[in-house]
Write a structure and sequence with these properties.
Elements lengths: L2 H19 L3 H12 L4 H7 L6 H40 L18 H15 L3 E3 L4 E3 H4 L11 H4 L14 E3 L5 H9 L4 E10 L10 E11 L4 H16 L6 E8 L2 E12 L7 E2 L4 E11 L1 H6 L8 E8 H9 L12 H7 L15
Parallel strand pairs: 1-4
Antiparallel strand pairs: 2-3, 4-5, 5-10, 6-7, 7-8, 7-9, 9-10
Helix pairs in contact: 1-4, 2-4, 3-4, 5-11
The protein binds phenylalanine (PHE).
The site of phenylalanine (PHE) has 11 residues, from strand 9 and strand 10.
Length: 362
């Protein structure tokens, strides 16, 4: 070994040892400057390449480059180790005891909408429905076109849609007006059999005691080769029984129109409104409209890349907020989103309640 090589080896082992021993990120940075900075040791050696003979350069060039790369790598590794150790130390120092009781008057509670969503996922989860998701900002295609709303059809405006400004290509996004675009997303990404629910925020330009510009829906979709309207009815009745905790419910299907289902129906539940201010589900002489549903339209199945001669199924959609109002006796929808802690104290639920079918969902 010539002396230069020995020197390089010594330089490398010296730096490697000091990098490995560096105690914090600042020390690593100082070593980086000392070795690889403009005035650094390795950079100084690199500068001598210019004055070497071509033969010498051919030998020393790769050696110096290798040295530079290895030291650079060692610096990066050490820096990452130290950053991780610093994070661990910080996490240890900032742990909090989540089992401590809250300070008086500061206890949080679960919003009825969150509670109902938990209940809905427990009920439908037990019936074999998987949970899907979609974004609040949707394409016009997913919210309307794929769902068999013809272009420029007034139904797009009937949904009181919030449209975004069109982009350069003329495409305009929307705040989704319903959760039905998640039907499209699911069919596009997943092969049947499909059995899913989706819950989330939806938006329409509308506001009174029973409408807010933002509200929540739950969507259900089943696609396979044999599912019928009878299956839909069975699932919905099982849902109503579990959700309202009643043994016997009578429902009726009224013919309706949705572009994305054929036939379409609205489902009403028998209820009693004879005592003012009280609503009883399952008995009485009144009907309460609760959801929209139907068999998925062949055009929708086709738009999602499936063959309507082979695949069929049903979909349903309902308002989560309305379900919450009905079950927990909340009279005004707007209060739900007023962020008033007194309201939440009255209607909210303990964070320690976890809905499950075994204990009853409510
Ligand atoms: N998307 C419909 C609405 O918002 C509800 C619906 C969903 C109807 C699925 C049929 C099938 O009114």
């Amino acid at each position: 070994m010539d002396t230069q090589t020995t020197d390089l080896a010594a330089l490398e082992s010296d730096f490697s040892a000091r990098i490995a021993a560096a105690a914090d990120e600042a020390a690593v940075e100082a070593l980086r400057v000392e070795a690889l900075g403009k005035q650094g040791a390795v950079s100084g050696l690199m500068k001598t390449l210019g004055s070497m003979s071509p033969d010498q350069r051919q030998v020393m060039g790769p050696k110096l480059n290798g040295l530079k790369d290895r030291l650079g790598e060692a610096l990066t590794v050490r820096k990452a180790q130290l950053a991780e150790a610093a994070l661990d130390a910080r996490l240890m120092a900032e742990t909090m005891d989540v089992s401590l009781p809250p300070r008086p008057g500061r206890a949080g509670s679960i919003h009825p909408i969150s509670m109902v969503m938990e209940e809905l996922s427990a009920i439908f989860g037990q019936m074999g429905f998987a949970l899907e998701e979609g974004p609040d900002i949707e394409t016009d295609f997913n919210n309307f076109t794929a769902l068999n709303f013809p272009p420029e059809h007034p139904a797009r405006d009937m949904h009181d849609t919030f449209f975004f400004h069109p982009n350069a290509k003329g495409d305009r996004k929307v705040l989704r007006t319903h959760t039905s675009p998640v039907q499209v997303r699911t069919m596009l990404k997943q092969k049947p059999p499909i059995r899913m629910i989706c819950m989330g925020r939806t938006y329409r330009c509308d506001s009174d005691a029973t409408h807010t510009p933002m509200f929540h829906q739950i969507e259900g979709l089943v696609i396979d080769e044999t599912t019928t309207m009878a299956d839909l009815k069975g699932v919905l009745m099982a849902f109503i029984r579990a959700y309202f905790e009643v043994d016997d419910v009578e429902v009726r299907f009224r013919p309706h129109h949705f572009p994305f289902t054929e036939p379409s129906a609205e489902m009403d539940v028998r209820c009693d409104r004879s005592v003012p201010g009280q609503l009883k589900i399952g008995a009485g002489n009144d009907w309460l409209e609760i959801l929209g549903c139907g068999m998925v339209h062949p055009n929708v199945i086709r738009a999602c890349g499936l063959d309507p001669d082979k695949h069929q199924g049903y979909a349903f959609g309902m308002g989560v907020d309305r379900l919450a109002m009905l079950k927990y006796g909340i009279p005004d929808l707007r209060d739900m989103f007023a962020a008033d802690t007194r309201w939440l104290k009255h209607y909210g639920f303990s964070p320690f309640l976890s809905p499950g079918l075994a204990a009853g969902v409510g």
